[in-house]
């Protein structure tokens, strides 16, 4: 495996790990409406702030959000194009499976024609 593939795999692993948790997906859904402070993002969740901050850290590590500090307030925003690597990977998988399906369909068609010829 090449170094670039390993890097891409690590990036995808971090991205999908970030998306694996329902709390983090809810945070992303909220940020899709626009930037928000950490305090505002944490309000709907019944958890201690340190636990919530771990979710934000995981989203940052996955490349899905950015946080900036304005005075004492941290603002979170979605990163533009953050889901592009996942989308590209899923598209490659779709094409691969469509190709396999087409080959299977052609093979079965050949088998069916051979079966008809034998009659």
From TrEMBL:
UniProt-listed CDD domains: HTH_ARSR (cd00090)
InterPro entries: ArsR-like_HTH, HTH_ArsR_DNA-bd_dom, WH-like_DNA-bd_sf, WH_DNA-bd_sf
GO molecular function: DNA-binding transcription factor activity
Domain HTH arsR-type: 4-103
Gene3D superfamilies recorded: Winged helix-like DNA-binding domain superfamily/Winged helix DNA-binding domain (1.10.10.10)
Domain of life of the organism encoding this protein: Bacteria
NCBIfam families: HTH_metalloreg
Name of this protein: Transcriptional regulator, ArsR family
Taxonomic placement: Bacteria, Pseudomonadati, Pseudomonadota, Alphaproteobacteria, Rhodobacterales
């Amino acid at each position: 495996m090449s170094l670039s593939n390993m890097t891409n795999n690590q990036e995808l692993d971090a991205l999908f790990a970030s998306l694996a948790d329902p709390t983090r997906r809810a945070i992303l859904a909220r940020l899709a409406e626009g930037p928000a402070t950490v305090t505002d993002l944490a309000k709907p969740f019944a958890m201690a702030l340190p636990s919530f901050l771990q979710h934000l850290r995981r989203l940052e590590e996955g490349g899905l959000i950015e946080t900036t500090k304005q005075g004492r307030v941290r603002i979170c925003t979605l990163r533009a194009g953050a889901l592009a690597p996942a989308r590209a990977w899923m598209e490659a998988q779709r094409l691969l499976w469509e190709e396999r399906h087409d080959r299977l369909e052609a093979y079965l068609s050949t088998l069916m024609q051979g079966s008809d010829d034998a009659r």
